[in-house]
Every structure is written in C-alpha cells, then in structure tokens.
Amino acid sequence: MGNADYECPHRVAIPPAKPFLTSLKSGVKETLFPDDPFRQFKNQPTSKKFILGLQYFVPILEWAPRYTFSFFKADLIAGITIASLAVPQGISYAGLANLPPIIGLYSSFVPPLVYAMLGSSKDLAVGTVAVASLLISSMLGKEVNPNENPKLYVQLALTATFFAGVFQAALGFLRLGFIVDFLSHATIVGFMSGAATVVCLQQLKGILGLVHFTHGTDLLSVMESVFSQTHQWRWESGLLGCCFLFFLLLTRYFSKRKPCFFWINAMAPLTSVVLGSVLVYLTHAEKHGVQVIGNLKKGLNPPSLHQLAFGSPYVMTAVKTGIITGVIALAEGIAVGRTFAMFKNYHIDGNKEMIAIGMMNIAGSSTSCYLTTGPFSRTAVNFNAGCKTAVSNIVMATAVMITLLFLTPLFHYTPLVVLSSIIICAMLGLIDYEAAIHLWKVDKFDFVVCISAYVGVVFGSVEIGLVIAVSISLLRMLLFIARPRTVLLGNIPNSMIYRSMDQYPIANSVPGVLILQIDAPIYFANANYLRERISRWIYEEEDKIKSTGGSTLQYVILDMSANGSIDTSGISMLEEVKKNTDRRGLKLVLANPRSEVIKKLEKSKFIEAIGQEWIYLTVGEAVAACNFMLHSCKSNSVTVDKFDAQDNV
Amino acid sequence: MGNADYECPHRVAIPPAKPFLTSLKSGVKETLFPDDPFRQFKNQPTSKKFILGLQYFVPILEWAPRYTFSFFKADLIAGITIASLAVPQGISYAGLANLPPIIGLYSSFVPPLVYAMLGSSKDLAVGTVAVASLLISSMLGKEVNPNENPKLYVQLALTATFFAGVFQAALGFLRLGFIVDFLSHATIVGFMSGAATVVCLQQLKGILGLVHFTHGTDLLSVMESVFSQTHQWRWESGLLGCCFLFFLLLTRYFSKRKPCFFWINAMAPLTSVVLGSVLVYLTHAEKHGVQVIGNLKKGLNPPSLHQLAFGSPYVMTAVKTGIITGVIALAEGIAVGRTFAMFKNYHIDGNKEMIAIGMMNIAGSSTSCYLTTGPFSRTAVNFNAGCKTAVSNIVMATAVMITLLFLTPLFHYTPLVVLSSIIICAMLGLIDYEAAIHLWKVDKFDFVVCISAYVGVVFGSVEIGLVIAVSISLLRMLLFIARPRTVLLGNIPNSMIYRSMDQYPIANSVPGVLILQIDAPIYFANANYLRERISRWIYEEEDKIKSTGGSTLQYVILDMSANGSIDTSGISMLEEVKKNTDRRGLKLVLANPRSEVIKKLEKSKFIEAIGQEWIYLTVGEAVAACNFMLHSCKSNSVTVDKFDAQDNV
C-alpha cells in the first residue's frame, strides 16, 4: 500500500536545524526581551548610546528639555487637585495599615518625587493604596500587635516596604515582569472587589465609634466583633459618618454624570475633612465619643534607614509581606499606567515601570514612607484634571510638603469617622459587579476565578483569596493542555477546506477517512489522554460505519495545524498511535505539522517510520491523496488486513 | 473603507450557544471520563448491568470462565520464574527500606493475590520496588530511627502503605488518574536513574561490610561516610560482593544477547543466594566480617491491622510518605502495565488499575506487607517467561507461601553482600543514559528536566529531585502559553495556502498585508505579551517597508487557526490591538477563528466592533478580500489616514 504513483502538490518543509546556542539565544530573547528594548541603541555611536541609556533609566532627562510653560500650567492644576485628594487619603490609608497617620502624609512626599524622575507614565499619580495597606496590617498584625508594640510594627512595615521595593526593582531588572501577568483580569476584579468589601467592613469600627475591634479581616470575625458589642455603638459617630458618606457619594454621582465637574469629586474628601474638623472643633464632639486624629508632628519626613529591622526575628514576615504586597502594588500600578497610556497613545515598558516603582519604594522605606504605587482613583483624577507629565506628581509632593511643614496642626480635630467615610466611598467604587456579570456572560471559567477570589478574600483572608484565584487560573491553563479538545473535521462543500463539523454543520465527512484535529501542544500531560481519545474516535467511527454501513475506515488524518509544540512523550504517543492504526489496518497520515513539531519528528525518526510521503501540507491534499489511493486500491482489488482489536484473554 | 461590494465565498459559522449545564456536563465528561467507561453499559438490562459492573471492578470474573489448561501451563512456568526472582529481591528491598527481611517476603504473598483478582493487566508481576523502598527509609528515617525504635518504624511503614493504598484507590475512584501523567517520561527517566544511583551508593555499606552508615541518601553524605571509615572496610565482604556482581552482570549480558535465555538472568539472583549461603555455611565467613541475614521467622503473614498507627504523633509523616511513594509506585505500575499491554494489544484502564493497586496496598498494610506495585524488571521476566494471565501472580504467591512455611531457615546464612550485589545489578539496568542522550537529541527542554531530576535526586534527596523535575515540566507548559510563538505567514507560490515564512522559505509575503499566526490559546498569561509582540511585528514591518520602499501596510490579518481558546483578558487584548491598528490607519482582519473563540468574541460584542465582514474562513480568502479592497481603493483614490504613532511629550 504505497502511494508512489501519487504526485504530491506541495511538500512539507523541514526547517534546517539551528545550532543549539542560536536557538537558545533567540528563545531567551523572546522570553525576556519580547519588546526588543535595545532596538534604539543599534547603530549608534558610544556617546549617544550612553545618553540613550541614561534616558532609558531616567526618563525625565529625555522629556525635561522639551518641557514648556503651557505644560506646567496644566500640571499645576492637576497637581493641586490630586494633592487635595492625597492628604486625606494618605491619613486614612495609614490608619488602615495600623500605622501613625503622619506616615501616610510622608508617603505622599518622597515617592512621587522619585517616580517623577524614573517613571515613564505621564498620568500615574503616586500614593498609598487601600488594599496593600490592609494586607500590611493583616500580615504584620498576625506577628506583632500594633497597639502593644507600635515601634516594632512601624519598623516592620518600613522593612516590608524596603523588600517590596527590592523585589519590584529586581523583577524589572531581571525582565521577569511577566510574573505580574499571571494575575489575570478576572482575578484582579474578584480580588479587588473582595478587598474593597473587607476594607468597608473594617470601617464599621470608625463609623460605629468602637474602641476594641477584631484583628481578623474575614466577614465572620468582623460581624461577630460588631454585634457582640452593640452597647458600645456611638450614635454621634454613626450619624456623622452617614452624613459625610452621603455627601461623598452624592458628589461622586454628580461628577460621574457630568465629567467636566470631576473636581467636585476630587475636592470632596478634603472638603469633608475641613467641614468635619470645624464641626468637631465647634461642638467639642471629641468629648462625646467622636474620635479624632489628635496631634500630628510638624516637619518633613525623618530619615528611617536605621529603622529597617534586618536583624529582627520577624524579618521573614517582613520579606513575605513585602513580596506579596509588592506584587499586588505592581499589578495595580502597571495596569493603571497602561490603561491611561493607551488613552493618550504612548507606550509603557512594564519592566522599566517596575524598576521605577521599586526604586520609589526603596527610597520611601528610608524616608519613613510605606508602600506606594499608582492608585487608580488618584490617577484618574490626575488624568481628568488634564495633567501633561509627571510634573503633576512634583506639584502634589510640594503641596504635601507645605502641609507637613505648616498645616499639620489643622488636622488635630479631624474626626476618624470622616476618614472612614472617605475610605468607604473610595472602596465602593472598586466593587465591580458589572465586570463580574460581564465575565459570567462571556467566560464562565473566568467568572469562577473571579468569584473564588472574592469569596476567598471575604470569608478567608486576602492571601487565601489570592492564592485560590491564581491557582484556579493556572489550573485552567494546565487543563487546557492536559485535556485538549480533539475535533472531527469535515469538508466544506465546493472547496478544499476542512473545518470542525461541530462548528460548521454544513461540513461533510469523507467516506473511509477520519480527520482529527488536536487543539493544543502535545505534551506529557496530555499524551496518554490523546492516545486513548484518538483510539476512541477510531472505534466510535468504526461503530458508526458498522451501524450505518458506509465504506470501511482506511485512513486516519491528524491535522496538526494547531499543535504548536511537542515533547518526547508526545512523540512516543504518536508512535503508539501509529502502531495502533497499523494493527487495525489503518494508515496514519499527518497534515500540516508545524516547524517545531516536524523538526522533532525528524530527529526522533518518526518521519522515517511513517514515511515522508504520508505527510501533507494541507488536509485537503491529504484527503485527495487518500482518495486517490482508495480508488486505485479498489481497482487493483487490494484487500486490507483488519486486525481484530477486541480484548480476548 | 468598507467591503460591501466584495462577496465572501465562505462565512465563518458561529455555533449555537449551548445551555450552560450541557456544556458543563460535556466538559466534566471529557475531563474525567475521556475513555467513556460506561459505554458497554448502554442499552443493557439491569441484571446484565450488574454483572458487567461486577466484572468491571473484579476483572477475574470476566476472564476466569475462559481460562484453559494451556494458559495454566504457561502461567505456571512464568510464576515459578518470577518467584525465584521475588524471594531474593523481596529480602533485599526490605533491607533498603530498613525493614526486617521477612516483611519483604510477606509483601510477595498477599498483594499478588489481590492484584490477580482486581487487576486488568495480564503481564504485571506484583512486588516491592527499590525506589519506593528507598523513599520510605529516607522519609520515615528522618523522624524515627529504625535501629533505635524498630517497632514504631515498622508501624509507620505499614501506616504509610495503608495511606498510599487509600490515596491510590481514591485517585482511581475519583477518576483523577491523570495526575500521574504529570510525571513526564523525561522526569521518570531522570528520577529513576538518580534513584538507582542513590540505591547503588547505599549498597557500598553492604559491599564494604560497614556497620555504621549515614542516613542521608545524597552523594556527599555517602562519600563522606565511606571514606571517613576506610579502616573499617572488610576485604572478605568486598571480594564476595564483586564476584557475585560480576556473575550477575555476566548473566544479564548473556540474556540480553540471547533473549531466549532470559531464564538464566531470572534465575541468577536465586542462584547467587544459594551459592552465597552455601559458601558462608562452609567457610563460616560470618565470623570473619561477612554479615548474614540471620534468623527468619517461619509462617505466613501475621495480621497487622492493629499495628496501623493512626494515633501516633508521626501520623502526618506517614501520610506524606504514603502519598509520595503511592504516586511514584502508581506511575511505575501503570507505565509498566501499559507498555506490556501495548505489546499484546489489549487496553488498560488507568483509573481501574489505580483502584486495583490501591486495594492491594490496603490489603497488604493489614497483613504485614509494605508498599508494592508492578516493578519493570519482574514484569519483563514474567512477560518473557510467557505468562498468559494474572494467574502467574497466584503461582508466585503460592511459591512464596511455601518458602514462608518451610524454607525460611535456609536463608540464615545468606550473606547481605549478595543481596547488595542483586540490588546493584538490578539498579544498573535502571540508569538509562541512552534515553537521556535521545532526549538531548530530540528535545533539549526534556533533557533539562531529566538532568535536573537526576541531579536533584543524587545531590539533594529523592523528594527534591522529584519536585524540581515536576516544577520544570509544569513551567514549560506555562511558558508555552505565556510566551507563545507568533509567526509571519506567506503565500506558498501557485496556491491559496499560507504558511510560516520561517518554515517555508519559498513562501512570499503579500504587499500591503501583514499575516500573523499565534501558536497558543490567548489567555491572561500571554495577553500583554501578545499585544506588545503584535505591535512590534507591525512597526518592524513598517520599518522594513520604509527602508525597502514597498507598498504601505494596510491590513493586519490574524490567523486564529491555532488559537484553541481565549479568555476575557485575551478578548481585551484583541480590543486593544484593534484600537491600536485603527489608530495607525490599519484594518484588522481575522481568519478562521475556532468554535470556542468565535462564540466568546460574539458574546463580548467584539465581532460587532470589528465587523462580521472582516472575519474570513481562511487566510487565503482574507487576503483575496484585502487585495480586492486595496485595488478598488486605489482606483477610487481613497487616501487612508496614517496616524503618527511616535511618542511625543
């Protein structure tokens, strides 16, 4: 049964073997430098290369010379707007991390300056974020009680910030930024909504004016803590909180309807703080159960290099906290940077951004700042306020500096409940139920990932939610490979095109030929499955032929168009399939094996075994050849042995 | 720029949406029941279903009625042959696990009987294996010293066997057998070779007649232990060991050259034991530094249910040991069963085998047996001896029973060094350097997996080697998805076929059209990469056109033939690519989106955004449409806006 008479219209090419080092080099380059960052350095004199290199790592050198006064006017307005948001948010989020409020203000001074020099985003507004703050308090709080041992707790928070920065910068330098990509969109939606829910729940402490509160972040602990001390609830605090929350939600609603009034929303937190402080000062509400911030130290960030507790027994906790919060902060910062870069049509290099965010946190950790990144809310305000460059961050830092130098006493009477309202209002915007509905409609699996992240965060802890969601996402990818779809192809009428018979009901099967396509690379994880699945396709087809009485099966064509890769287990699988088909008197034919696959099939001598003449460029040509053989066989009345493949003892 | 005039030859079909539960059900079925085990139950009366079900779980009921005397003759010979191997191997491997030698004999009695009833392989010979024995001693030995507390150690070994059995059976019942597939061929080659090396190294204790020996299994500990006590080496023992090793290797070499003399190799271990015992008995060598087995208790397996130490503080160690050794044993047993089933052309159901092996270990753990599976060497001997069914296991068990009842005193003078020689000889066959060379030739990545498993086992520990190899294998799969290949397609001359220009140097690019193919599902892990990579392809193409002066780029065709799946992050990526191409004045065209992809694109309204008329069944048709548009555009002198995409501040 040869096909020497049949002339094959096109041959499948076997690309020449590349030397090992060449292919290794190109593999590493595609994996770690997919964006070809050295492109601009090519064919440049050394001095120019040096300048370009400096500009690569310190982008301000590149754009500062072209900075104009009209840019500055825009950046000034944007900077002042985000400063008005930064001050109350800084104080609030520091409270969420169980850190002294002043550290929240410090964190809006140094990191924005560093980012303005090193960052490549024109819109990112730097600051602390709620989720990372919550993570710090939950992870460090397990080891050190912030009320009993505040000094050690602050040291650990700064140390964690340092390690977060080192980890972030290292990811960037080592071009491993793609690790952040493993937090899928669905994971982030579920995780952020869950974290926002948890943060809102934590605010019940402030709203209800409770003094004692659980250290747990899960729904059950919080509910138990709230309802076990109903007699401690303070109506004054609650009333104030609800009023301000209503005010903040109203301004947000208004700004959403009319985007040109974005500044109303941006100014609302500061307005609330001022109103609240004045109210407390006038009514002396601090003596009637409304807790206030109290004294804030005047002056700029004190250096804190000596506070980094590398020798502490809790240093491993700090490292762990740093790595987890660092990844979360990176994911938010880079996603936000990319989103706004796309609006303005410029490009952001993820790895470069990681270095910038990492350096800003390393610098922050030695100047009494805790973890910062580019929060979505503040960046959106910055963008809407018309910022042109990172100078808006410098303006914000200057405004915060003035606050630190002169205005801190004004916050003495600021009620904590206002800060809680600000946090709740910001967090409610993060609970993205519309995105979850969209996920359910488009991709059920993504919805499962999203919901498990949410449930994990709300009922377990932030880390549990994250681990569950990432595991399920990875499982999906592994499952895609471990259980690839195999589809039956049929002929689209009046064409040489073969497509899935499930997708195209008009496609017709070819008598005597079984055409299969496998939708994934053939790897060890699916080799056994595919072997069994292919033999099931064969006997199902034979059963069908038996019951309907068509022409007997003679050829099995494997369309390998969708097999991007194969490993040695996969090749063994093909060898076994070949043995199996030979034993049943069937001929195995391959169509369109891809570059990598055909190279390996050649090296492992599988091509010799199957015969080069049984490998075709398209399914159409393979079927044509099979049909040619079928008819010439029939006319020569060649009989094909059929081996009885039933299991007998 | 529409293409309303152009008539599309074939339309891409959007398969009708299936109800959620239907698709969930078919997904679960494909994942857990790919081999359709209930097929034979269809359309059968209830009584028949019951019988079939019973035969499904107890295969002996199915084949016993058809058992003939000629089968029995063959099985008798095979059974006696493997029994002659089982007795010395059982004693040796028990020593490797630091268990009393008699437990090794017990383990060749009950488990083969259980397997004969439940197993579906006709060739598998049941027994203990070296690697699992070594694992037991290294994992349990860390917690309990077998010399100081032998009773507890034996209890833990039996408990670990019990948990291994439960875990194995549970995997089978839950249809999770594919977990074993994650041990790739390359992993197993490296792991087995490494374990064999480690086992050989451990035998230096016996060969050199050392009394004190390290509990570590890594090369460095063993070498230190050996060379720190050179004055303790016993030449008598060494000489005896080398002689027997030479004899065993010689018989193996001879049997390999002449397969019909397989029995010489099979009988050699028992011959060595007899010769060694006689020699020691005659020369009283046990008084000159040659250690002997000593007294073995007569009698059959005592029940050991009461010895299972569920309440022990070390129970978690036993669970962990059970799970790891259970998986390793399963992997070996199933791989061996499948290999020999393929020779004889019958099918083995992996999940059913797991239940059989699991039940045999559960039964074993309550009758003083430790972990058993189907070792390759013994099964190969069984196969070569011409076994027909699992009755050969029953014959072997009977022979072992006779040994236990009457012959144990004969082993009193058996020198340990002979057992060491038997182990070394068996292990040298497992070091498969030829397979490693093959891996290097065919697939460099598999070679890395193999070598890291080997190095991990030899220099670290058995568990470390396993974890490293499995992680690298999984990383490869993730990397395949995280960094998919994107290839440039060109036209094969005189055809409508488009193929990779790397693979087919004869393929020509189409002026004004960039055709890309992505080789993996579009998932969150690669969405960012692909977005950047596609825009790099576009600007590289534009640079090329600028420098060579061809016709300007107008169309980007994405061939989606190899994209088996997409998730919501992938869809967002496509939306961004569309925005990006729109901004550059390019038109995005899709070719051959697959069933799952097109369904999701429709649900997410991406098809509306791109326009149904820009989705083609093949690349050829897409190119034809683009060419049609290009020329009609030119003749109408429609100019296309080109947006300057350079980054300016």
From TrEMBL, chains A, B:
An example Gene Ontology cellular component term from the record?
Answer: membrane
Which compartments is it annotated to reside in?
A: Membrane
Q: Does the keyword Transport apply?
A: yes
Q: Which residues form the STAS domain?
A: 503-626
Matching PROSITE patterns? SLC26A, STAS
Signal peptide (residue range): none
Q: Where are the bilayer-spanning segments? A: 76-96, 102-118, 125-141, 153-174, 186-213, 233-250, 262-282, 323-343, 389-407, 414-431, 451-475
**What is the protein's major site of localization?**
membrane
Query: Which Pfam family would be a valid example here?
Result: Sulfate_transp
Alphabetically list the UniProt keywords: Membrane, Transmembrane, Transmembrane helix, Transport
What membrane topology was assigned to this protein in its record? Multi-pass membrane protein
Q: Which GO terms describe its molecular function?
A: secondary active sulfate transmembrane transporter activity
**CDD domains, per database record:** STAS_SulP_like_sulfate_transporter
Database matches in NCBIfam families = sulP
| Family statement drawn from the similarity comment of this UniProt entry | Belongs to the SLC26A/SulP transporter (TC 2.A.53) family.
Name it: STAS domain-containing protein
Gene source species: Jatropha curcas
